[in-house]
Amino acid sequence: MSALLEVQHITKVFGGGLFSRNRTTALEDFSLTIASEPPSITAVVGESGSGKTTLARILLGLETPTEGQVLYQGKDLRGLSTADWHSFRRDVQVVFQDPFEVYNPFYKVDHVLTTPIAKFGLAKSQQERQTLIEEALHSVGLRPENTLGRRPHQLSGGQRQRIMVARALLLRPRLIVADEPVSMIDASLRATVLGNLRQLNEEFGISVVYITHDLTTAYQISENIIVMYSGSVAEAGDIDLVVKQPQHPYTQLLIGSVPQPDPDRRWNTESLAASTAATGGSEGCKFFTRCPHAMSKCAGSAPPLFQTDAHRLAACYLHEESPSLPAEEMASLFVERGASVNSPS
Amino acid sequence: MTPRPRSNGEAHAQSAALQVRNLRVHYDTPSGVVQAVDSVSFSLEAGERFGLVGESGSGKTTLAMALLRMIKPPGQIESGQVWLDGQDVLALSGDEMRKLRLAGIALVAQGSMNSLNPVTRIRRQLLDGMKDHAAAGSNGTDNGTNAAKLSRREQEAFVHDLLARVGLEPQVADMYPHELSGGMKQRVCIAMAISMRPKVIIADEPTSALDVVVQMQIMETLRRVQEEVGAAVLLVGHDMGIMAQFVDRVGVMYAGKLVEVSPVRDIFSRPLHPYARLLIECLPSLEVKDTLEGIPGLPPSLIERPTGCLFHPRCPHAATECETQEQILDEAQPDRWVACHRLDLIHDLQPETGVS
């Protein structure tokens, strides 16, 4: 088993102290395996409150799950030795959402690049350090002479976010968790940052977990997608299948809501009927109250994952004639890079 | 109507809900003068939906704020004219302008769900704005309802009607903002904006912090109420997808200037200005996976702006004349206004089918 990082049946509950009634289940019985080979890009898509950022924080070891465990190369994160923890910190890197808040305005931007080099002892000399930084900046398409020595406010959001990608790259990690890396930058700069992420994946063999609410960018860079709804998987698998022929009613709603840059293709306003906020029952399917296909069965118990295609799962009773699959085997259906690309043109 | 620099503003002020002519706004900063809006002209027909797109820092929000005369120092409206429904907005006194806001021209601000007062119930907030803007001694606001003169029962009916228009339950009137979701708060802001039936609603990235599903609901709500009250909408944003879904015409801003103003179908099927074309080409699609490339280069500094056409350093078609001569918006095709020296040449290079 060559899993780089594995989460098994994790549940994360916030709040709910001894006397508190306000408990929020951010993630429920979620499992995901990120193999060390081959490098993959997996998108995790969902609306606010679907648990996607909680998942990112758990993958990064910033949050411990209430139930279940996170395994790094087969070892539980909670019991890692100092040496293992050190290598976990290096192998698993992050790019956060906000390219403004991650910088300390008092330091030059060089600071975010020199700190990891010092911390992990990557360079023996000043010269070597400089080379490393310049190489990393070049890899994300930035010119060191225009970047180094500046203060964060002198750079655009896109540049700052690319420096964060360069920082992650410095450590030659095996996995980058990117939590909404482009949601706060202009559409014209998004493409560049996403292009960088895909390039890291292809050239350096780094896996990426791309967390977003934007299906279009997810579609552009990932092979596989996990659509989250209210802490559970709604649909998962080959992104071409999920985007082109969504099977779960929630995925259908999401895709129908994407504003197409084409005035002749109106977004699907029929799905507006499935309007108000998510207040699913505690027992049944969480999408029950918004679902146009809701059946009495859906209120009773949460649907398991049904395997509707060779490379896709949907958690919906509409597909109950398909065989169901245990949640922890979800990733085994994922397509490998190259296999999913039908025709590049 | 399209920007017609040579036409007389006063003549058009009658037919257009909003007309802007040669508006210039700058910020006087310690490092120099930032020319945020440079000689912008356009107009909105009654009930029209007009989109203003551009990158961060292209001056679109400054332009929107200038229309409301809400530019704060060091910003300053330098010159130009803004006609709202026949009134010269820039000539009004402070008091008159205050009456005009909300009653004549309303704003749904960026992240406006965070602009609600956290300690006041929604009902109060809906009524307060009206009391403030109508009761300031107005007589010209027959298009709105004067909340101050309404009985309690009428006020209640009025609030419920407003909430119903934006798809909210009457109970929301008794709630505080923290009890509402982001989408619901944005609906309240839309309700507030239409409360006095303005001629023009300015929506500055009204859905930038919301999910796609909620975003669609909000935009559809805005479209419905805008049609009901017959207001024109100026939608400011950088999301071309929303523009395609919502507006009738698009104005593309670059470094403080309008570079193209075209009907939405035309600009998506055949953008004329090179910047507009790049902006549309770099949009990711849900149909095909293509190479991810942004627009090369960076937006110019608004303090030391390039000479000639402001886009020339990034333009794939730039020639020497672009570096030296400025180009103003010109009617390239019926209803399509473009500021580009090399338009004819570029579009010979690119035949009708050339949008890939």
Describe the structure.
The complex is a heterodimer of chains A (345) and B (356). Chain A is α/β, with parallel strands linked by helices and 345 residues long. Chain A has eleven helices and 13 strands. In chain A, the strands form two sheets. Chain A has a nine-stranded mixed sheet with strand order 6-7-8-3-9-10-12-11-13, with helices on both faces. In chain A, strands 2-1-4-5 form a four-stranded antiparallel sheet, covered by helices on one side. The two termini of chain A are 35 Å apart. Chain B is α/β, with parallel strands linked by helices and 356 residues long. Chain B has twelve helices and twelve strands. In chain B, the strands form two sheets. An eight-stranded mixed sheet of chain B has the order 6-7-8-3-9-10-12-11, sandwiched between helices. A four-stranded antiparallel sheet of chain B has the order 2-1-4-5. The model of chain B is unreliable at 1-13, 135-144 and 349-356 (pLDDT under 50). The chains are: A alpha/beta (345), B alpha/beta (356).
Proportion of residues in helical segments of chain A = 25-40%
Placed side by side, the strands forming the largest sheet of chain A appear as: 6-7-8-3-9-10-12-11-13
Fraction of residues in H or I helices of chain B:
25-40%
Give the strand tally of chain B.
Answer: 12
Q: Quick one: biggest sheet of chain A?
A: 9 strands, mixed
Give the strand order of the largest sheet of chain B, numbering strands 1, 2, ... along the chain: 6-7-8-3-9-10-12-11
Strand share of the residues of chain A?
15-25%
Q: Detail the poorly predicted runs of chain B.
A: 1-13, 135-144, 349-356
Largest interface: A-B, 46 and 44 residues
Secondary-structure element string of chain B: HEEEHEEHEHHHEHEHEEHHHEEH
Radius of gyration of chain A: 21 Å
Spans where pLDDT lies below 50 across 5 or more residues of chain A: 339-345
Number of strands of chain A: 13
Q: What is the beta-strand fraction of chain B?
A: 15-25%
Terminal CA distance of chain A:
35 Å
Q: Would you tell me the overall average pLDDT of chain A? A: 85
| Shape call of chain B | globular
Give the N-terminus to C-terminus distance of chain B in angstroms.
30 Å
Rounded average pLDDT of chain B: 83
